[in-house]
Specification:
This protein is an all-alpha fold. It has helices at residues 2-16, 20-26, 66-75, 80-84, 130-136, 148-151, 168-172, 190-193, 195-202, 259-262, 276-279.
Length: 324
């Protein structure tokens, strides 16, 4: 009887493509492909099946992937669709992201602490759900290394061509523009549709280089006045306690910043348009003037006004007059 059960198991394994050869034929993290397609099972025998356990034993799934093995083993097959898609089951098996990406299991992938997140509804205060995650990350290979063109959903550009992203901001601007927004994600708020113009023409830390002159030109290690600063250096898509999605901690943005500062982390509070704690993350005077040696309230100094809206005088990276 025992041999019969073993024989049946081997037949299932072959039919489903559950062995290493069948699985790697359709899934490869190294090749940046985790989403299952109609070839799943080697010859498609496993495509459309809702029960992953008919082929894959929980005791051996991802045994070589230490970073997710314990989560998968504990939470079981509920984790499968988040990484591998619905396997042709349409809506019967929804893709789940939060089952792994939460404050307990993967608290830094990404940080999710905060009441504001990019939920595709202006003014709405709510944590991200699985559906929101998948809009931007429909086919990530989840290898622990963020790649703009692997880990972000591909949207068409102004010519309706699916061109590669040069940086994270290229991705953001596929929606935040006036004349080529994405179907289903149309934006009506003028301040949000103007982002593309500001980034390319006015320079919200975009493509117009600053001069880097004058005593206030100092920048912390990692940034230069020729740097194209990603939108996500200052805006947290996943969670923040600040409105306008401004990061509330240095480790949620400022990716070029020296790791000693970025990973401290330093807090950022922006009450009533007070951006001093945000600006001081990257800006540090070379020649101290005014109150440049005073703490802005988060442990850092280097800007001459330790509170208030810096944009009253500084045009947020504008090329002329050293930002004045």
């Amino acid at each position: 009887m025992k041999n019969i059960y073993l024989f049946i198991f081997l037949l299932l394994l072959i039919a489903c493509g559950g062995g290493d050869k069948g699985e790697t034929a359709t899934v490869s993290q190294a090749e940046g492909k985790l989403i299952l397609d109609a070839t799943h099972g080697g010859n498609g025998y496993a495509w459309g099946r809702a029960n992953c356990d008919s082929c894959h034993a929980l005791g051996v799934i991802h045994a070589s992937l230490d970073n997710i093995r314990s989560i998968v083993k504990t939470k079981g097959y509920a984790t499968c669709t988040g990484c591998h898609g619905r396997n042709g089951t349409n809506e019967s098996e929804p893709r789940r992201c939060g089952v792994c990406h939460n404050d307990t299991d993967l608290p830094q992938s990404p940080p999710l602490q905060g009441q504001h997140a990019h939920g595709f509804a202006v003014g709405k205060v709510a944590a991200l759900g699985d559906a929101q995650c998948l809009v931007c990350h429909d086919a990530s290979n989840m290898d622990g290394r963020f790649d703009n063109n692997q880990d972000l959903t591909r949207f068409p550009d102004a010519r309706q061509v699916f061109t590669a992203y040069n940086n994270v901001s290229d991705f953001c601007l596929r929606c935040h523009n006036r004349d080529h927004q994405q179907v289903g994600f149309e934006i009506v708020d003028d301040s949000l549709t103007a982002v593309d113009d500001e980034f390319h023409l006015i320079n919200k830390h975009g493509y117009q280089d600053g001069s880097g002159e004058r005593s206030y030109a100092g920048l912390r290690t990692g940034y230069t006045y020729q740097s194209v600063v990603d939108c996500t250096d200052c805006h947290s898509m996943h969670a923040t306690n600040n409105i306008r999605l401004i990061i509330d901690r240095s480790d949620k943005g400022v990716k070029r910043l020296d790791a000693v500062i970025r990973n401290n982390p330093y807090t950022v509070q922006t009450p009533d348009g007070d951006f001093a704690q945000l600006c001081v993350l990257c800006h540090q005077m070379e020649a101290i003037i005014d109150d440049g040696d005073l703490d802005t309230g988060n442990g850092l100094s280097g800007v001459h006004q330790t509170s208030g809206d810096c944009r009253t005088c500084h045009s947020h990276g504008e090329a002329v007059q050293a930002g004045l």
